[in-house]
Design a protein that fits this description.
single chain; 281 residues; alpha+beta; five-stranded antiparallel sheet; 11 helices; 10% strand; elongated
Length: 281
């Protein structure tokens, strides 16, 4: 027997909120799925192109309030985008992306049509930190350009990549923004201390930001990396500049993240920094 849901509210021709026998309240999206439907009617769940939960009452309210400001055809288009992201990332997306990304893209399209652009000064950092998300975001922007007949500014790739990363990691955009801005700050400290300029198009830069990202992630979740005291002493003697710089970076991370940092992070940072110094000479 095919699974049925009971309609609670028809938001528009393409979106309904329904009661699911297992998951309680669900949102169903599909072309014409709400047309001529009434509250209390049953609906085969297979008629929906996309079904998702909005457990958070605030998220649900935001989604309901957003819909009147976007065209119904756009909701179907966003469904295509979200299905594409889910398929390319090969995992389920956190429910909040339905609200956050729909809201972001709807208003970004409007800005682009009025030739209003927001710069994104962290594009290189975002591309290096989240390469898969960045690639998928490029594909999403191409979909938008083709659909809307506009040219999305390059900075939007970075913003969309952050939304995707948030949806696949369940991190808040606030935490993600804080983390990549911290990484950008750490890179600047390294450049100033070592008196170098790291080319953002090089493998060295990519390796550095990936290492810093992993360190920030470990600190964020409180993971210890473990280490050798003897190795730390050896690095301190052999590479005092990089060892002292590693502790300078650790103090910046402690202050910005407001979390303790495992002493062993200094070992891995020192080794990585020394690699940069060796490439400099």
């Amino acid at each position: 027997m095919e699974q049925q849901v009971t309609i609670e509210k028809v938001l528009n021709n393409n979106v309904v909120i329904a009661e699911h026998p297992t998951y309680k309240e669900v949102v169903l999206i599909g072309k014409g799925i709400g047309f001529s439907r009434k509250k209390g009617e049953t609906l085969p769940i297979k008629e929906a192109d996309k079904t998702f939960l909005l457990r958070d009452p605030e998220q649900k309210e935001q989604y309901v309030n957003l819909l009147p400001y976007v065209e119904e055809d756009f909701i179907n288009f966003m469904n295509d985008i979200l299905v594409h992201i889910e398929n390319r990332m090969n995992q389920r997306l956190n429910e909040h992306i339905h609200v956050a990304l729909t809201d972001h893209i709807a208003f970004a399209v409007n800005r682009a049509k009025h030739d209003l652009q927001f710069n994104n000064p962290f594009l290189f950092e975002i591309e290096s930190l989240y390469p898969k998300e960045y690639q998928v975001a490029m594909e999403v922007v191409e979909m938008i350009n083709n659909k809307e007949g506009i040219e999305f500014p390059e900075g939007e790739i970075g913003f969309i990549a952050l939304h995707i990363h948030s949806a696949v990691t369940d991190k808040t955009l606030s935490d993600i923004n804080k983390h990549y801005q911290l990484i950008s700050q750490l890179v600047k400290v390294i450049e100033d201390s070592l008196e170098i300029t790291i080319d953002k198009n090089t493998v060295d830069y990519h390796r550095l930001v990936q290492h810093l990202r992993r360190a920030v992630d470990r600190i964020h979740i409180g993971e210890d990396v473990g280490g050798e005291n003897r190795l730390a002493e050896m690095l301190k003697k052999e590479y005092p500049l990089c060892y002292n710089l590693s502790w300078k970076l650790i103090k910046v991370m402690q202050k910005q993240l407001n979390k303790p940092v495992d002493d062993s992070e200094a070992i891995y940072l020192t080794i990585h920094l020394q690699r940069l110094v060796n490439h400099k000479t």
